[in-house]
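Protein modeling request. Please complete all fields; requests missing the sequence field cannot be processed.
Requester role: graduate student
Desired output: 3D structure, token encoding
Chains: 1
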Amino acid sequence: MSKVKVYATLGSGMPLIPSEVNRRRLNPHDVQIEINYCGVCHSDLHTARNEWGNTIYPCVPGHEIVGRVSAIGTHVTRFKVGDIAGVGCMVDSCGLCFSCKEGEEQYCEGGFTFTYNGPMFGTGDNTYGGYAQNIIVKESFVLHIRHDEKDLAGVAPLLCAGITTYSPLRYWGAGPGKKVGIVGLGGLGHMGIKLAHALGAYVVLFTTSVNKTQDGKRLGADEVVISHDHQQMAAQVNSFDLIINTVAVPHDLNQFLSLLTRNGTMTLVGVPATPHPTFKTYDLIRNRRQLAGSLIGGIRETQEMLDFCAEHSIASEIELIPINYINEAYERMLKSDVRYRFVIDMSSL
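Delivered output (349 residues):
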């Protein structure tokens, strides 16, 4: 084991502070990555503050990791020292269940190992994330980054926000001839717009903020609808093949279900700390609509997404911050005061 510098929180309601944790020794199939950038996800805040009731302390958040390979195990074949690599939301899974064998490790029947807040397969040890100097991860959960180095800070959020929106867009066939709605313009929503546009869909942003109209169109939305404007919403009824709902606070789902065409789907990707209000079953039944959920993506699909984004010059819109600003960044996240993702410059650790 080796000591590494991190930013950690020691308990619910406590700030993130400089600290140290032990990283495991480098095993034969492991890759060690010196972290250059780490995105700040709303899940980091939920976990750090134990809002989902399952946090193990000390907690080192961070699962949008980009860095440079600094060491490899003796059996590693896909990476070499000096490569630019990424790590997303998970670092292990059982590898044996149907989902794992299908390349859908995020649905591992035994529960995949989160990049932080473990527990780790085999030992039950806690895992520590990317607000750190380095990380050691099994090769099969490490991703190749093919963007230009100047874009690497904006690549970091692709490891969560990117794949979280890409996976349902791909699964439900977003592309030419399809009308896709994106609810919310934040870390997830802005990536949903960029990706749906690049896939060739007709894209509509739903937002409560009139002042986000111009930004929505700049990012690739063909239309922007103010969701509290009843007239604008009524004009969209029965017209959407797919709606990706990124909002992570409880809200009325019925207003969006009515916008789906026959056989249309609304997929939830935001996870609120408390449940959404009950939806109207009849709104689903009458047009064979579907209300679904989607969780990040498997390693194979995440690599596909990264390659797609590199090919189309897609990265996240970010605000780069030093690590000692992280507690202020959390407070700003709660106010939606970021366009559209904080990314930590880990050289500041």
